[in-house]
Amino acid sequence: MNLANLVGRDFLRMTDLTSEEVGALLKLAAGLKSGQLAPHCPKNLGLLFSKASTRTRVSFSAAIFQMGGQVLDLNLSVTQVNRGEPTKDTARILSRYLDVLAIRTYEQAEIETFAEYADIPIINALTDLEHPCQILADLQTVQENFQSLEGLTLSYFGDGNNVAHSLILGCALVGMNVVIAGPTDYQPDAAIVAKGKELAGDRSTITLTDDPKAAAENCHVLYTDVWASMGQEDLADNRIPIFQPYQVNDELLKLANPEAIVLHCLPAHRGEEITDAVMEGAQSRIWDQAENRLHAQKALLAALLGADGLY
Ligand code: CP
Ligand code: NVA
């Protein structure tokens, strides 16, 4: 597939990519990881983050540095954003200085406004609705372990949050089955589930359940995330007893396919959504998954910016 299709595009939602484009980015990410490809991209990346970040901030920065580009980490407290400058004005101004802008914020609508008014690619570095960059790295990690993605089953345990949403859509795009196991009141957004089902078509299935054991049976990937996301910290303590049955632990892991791998987007709360033993255990691929943020995002930047040396 010709990656030239992706030049200048935004990546706001998982569905901004077709199945073919996800496949091409994963192939590129694998080529970058193996060292087979070393694109050159001396461009300026801005990071406008309203929430904390270790992996996303550092992996995006390292990715553009390694391609000969630079990062401007736009701390909100030193910009006029926190003093109420309208989003559409900030978007127009930043796109005159930068070549690409990754944004981490609360409302999906805010990055949609950025994309509307900016002339450069806007990347969703996490919103309350989606975390699509994470899912590119997750799919790369699954592919490294199972070669082909189609027909595998990923079971996600916990809150129907941003990561769950992008997993539903990303897995549907590549023909993987998804099971979301969580308390009935914490299921993913109905519109995202419907979109996932539409994308999956006859190729794969999207299943919601409140039964963690049924979800774990014979699955190939067990995935979990925090029970309270950034912005929901006040709710964290109350959620512990509600989500406890969905903890990824040895008991749940035993029900999965013997070759199953365990993923977590991180940061993790050991002893809550996942046990220390599972995180450190033989089936955990969590550290490879975190490393793959670098390769997958480098592939994304290279494609959106039309880097030299991609072929
Ligand atoms: N998984 C993830 O996005 O991590 P950070 O919040 O540290 O960027
Ligand atoms: N669901 C988590 C993911 C963190 C990477 C959050 O939004 O805080």
How would you characterize this protein structure?
This protein has helices spanning 19-34, 55-66, 87-97, 108-117, 132-146, 162-174, 190-200, 212-216, 236-243, 250-253, 276-280, 286-305, and strands at 44-49, 70-73, 100-104, 122-124, 153-157, 177-181, 206-209, 221-224, 261-264. The protein has 311 residues and is an alpha/beta fold. It folds into 2 domains: 4-130 and 293-305, Aspartate/ornithine carbamoyltransferase (Rossmann fold, 3-Layer(aba) Sandwich); 134-290, Aspartate/ornithine carbamoyltransferase (Rossmann fold, 3-Layer(aba) Sandwich), CATH 3.40.50.1370. The protein has a 5-stranded parallel sheet with strand order 7-6-5-8-9. Strands 2-1-3-4 form a 4-stranded parallel sheet, sandwiched between helices. Strand 1 (44-49), helix 2 (55-66) and strand 2 form a beta-alpha-beta unit. Helix 5 crosses helix 12. It starts with 18 loop residues before the first helix and ends in a 6-residue tail after the last helix. Norvaline (NVA) binds next to helix 6.
Task: Give the secondary structure arrangement, pairings included.
Elements (H helix, E strand, L loop, with lengths): L18 H16 L9 E6 L5 H12 L3 E4 L13 H11 L2 E5 L3 H10 L4 E3 L7 H15 L6 E5 L4 H13 L2 E5 L8 H11 L5 E4 L2 H5 L4 E4 L11 H8 L6 H4 L7 E4 L11 H5 L5 H20 L6
Parallel strand pairs: 1-2, 1-3, 3-4, 5-6, 5-8, 6-7, 8-9
The protein binds phosphoric acid mono(formamide)ester and norvaline.
